[in-house]
Design brief:
single chain; 81 residues; alpha+beta; disordered N terminus
Length: 81
């Protein structure tokens, strides 16, 4: 798990640096999706399907979100065949 906090400098003493809040500077210059793709395709025997989404979400309103394992997920929960 990455640490997305930064110690505030003298000019940003009022900035919220707690986990879950955005950090102003990302040294990689990559989006979260790009970082995920890079991490999941970096291994020697990996391929593009390793970075495919593994879940789907559906906002049902009233604060309810359904989360399912994607039909295209390469790795699925349950017993191996």
């Amino acid at each position: 798990m990455s640490d997305d906090t930064q110690a505030p400098g003298p000019d940003d003493a009022d900035r919220d640096t707690s986990p879950g809040h955005p950090v102003d500077h990302d040294p990689t210059g990559m989006t979260d999706d790009e970082k995920r793709h890079d991490q999941l395709t970096r291994a020697p025997k990996s391929d593009e399907s390793d970075a495919a989404p593994r879940i789907t979400t559906e906002d049902r309103g009233d604060g309810v979100t359904r989360i399912d394992v994607a039909d295209t997920a390469k790795v699925r929960p349950g017993k191996a065949d």
